[in-house]
């Protein structure tokens, strides 16, 4: 079964229970990431909409996309929590059906660890951003510590198989390879969970 189909089915299956993961994600991380957005924002892999309550009021509009319709169904319940208009659409970040240069910011939290081709997804984010626009990522990734990285490499086939989750990706390098200028890389949990801000 193709990997994207595997991960879509998993999130479809767990959509109603997904929010328990939020118990291990400090809300200050979501708040920090969302507070860096402005103008017209694309949130990719919006999931159940856990970032919706944290968008600043000065954002003009949020377009939230995800491959999983059940995850979007859960997100729809959070839309009334903000005055900022939020529109949800089923879409694959690897093939965004959105015009080039149409967003001020793209936000993704814990998404590029699951996207089958993260480089292609990041290229698409770059395409839809306006010149001068910002990509904001909250992401877990492979550590630069050699021993920890070895453990992550060893565990990765298991996490991919069970959760569709890659734990050893070089996401900061991928962001640069996709054409972004990296502005902020902030370690939030060792160098495994990081906030990344990068400009087009
Ligand atoms: C770990 S969840 C994170 C959800 C949310 N961003 C959060 O912080 O709670 C990963 C999300 O990415 C979505 N996803 C995976 N592959 C995707 C793709 N190719 N395009 C769009 N969304 C995708 C999944 O359906 C899921 O909702």
Overall, the morphology is globular
| Biggest sheet character | 7 strands, mixed
CATH superfamily label: Vaccinia Virus protein VP39
Please report the total strand number as a whole number.
7
- End-to-end distance: 35 Å
Counting copies of identical and different chains, the oligomeric state is single chain
Structural class: alpha/beta
Summarize the amount of helix as a percent range: 25-40%
Measured by DSSP, the beta-strand proportion falls in 25-35%
Question: What ligands can be seen in this structure?
Answer: S-adenosylmethionine
Give the strand line-up of the largest sheet: 3-2-1-4-5-7-6
**CATH secondary-structure class:** Alpha Beta
Global Rg: 16 Å
Provide the fold topology.
Elements: H1 3-14, H2 27-35, E1 40-44, E2 61-66, H3 69-76, E3 86-90, E4 103-109, H4 118-128, E5 129-140, H5 146-163, H6 171-177, E6 181-189, E7 193-199
Parallel strand pairs: 1-2, 1-4, 2-3, 4-5
Antiparallel strand pairs: 5-7, 6-7
S-adenosylmethionine (SAM) is lined by residues 4, 7, 11, 44-47, 50, 65-68, 71, 92-94, 109-111, 114-115.
């Amino acid at each position: 079964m193709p990997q994207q189909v595997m991960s879509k089915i998993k999130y479809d299956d767990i959509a109603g229970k997904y929010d328990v993961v939020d118990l291990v994600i400090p809300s200050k991380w979501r708040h920090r990431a969302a507070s860096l957005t402005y103008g017209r924002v694309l949130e990719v892999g919006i999931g159940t909409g856990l970032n919706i309550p944290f968008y600043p009021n000065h954002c003009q509009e949020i377009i939230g996309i995800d491959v999983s319709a059940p995850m979007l169904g859960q997100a729809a319940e959070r839309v009334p929590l903000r005055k900022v208009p939020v529109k949800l659409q089923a879409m694959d970040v690897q093939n965004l059906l959105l015009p080039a240069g149409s967003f001020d910011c793209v936000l993704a939290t814990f998404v590029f660890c699951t996207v089958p081709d993260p480089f292609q997804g990041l290229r698409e984010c770059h395409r839809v951003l306006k010149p001068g626009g910002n990509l904001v990522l909250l992401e877990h990734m492979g550590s630069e510590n050699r021993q920890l990285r070895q453990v992550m490499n060893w565990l990765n086939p298991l996490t991919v198989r069970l959760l569709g989750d890659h734990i050893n990706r070089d996401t900061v390098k991928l962001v640069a390879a996709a054409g972004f200028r990296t502005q902020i890389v902030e370690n939030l949990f060792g160098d495994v969970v990081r906030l990344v801000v990068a400009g087009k």
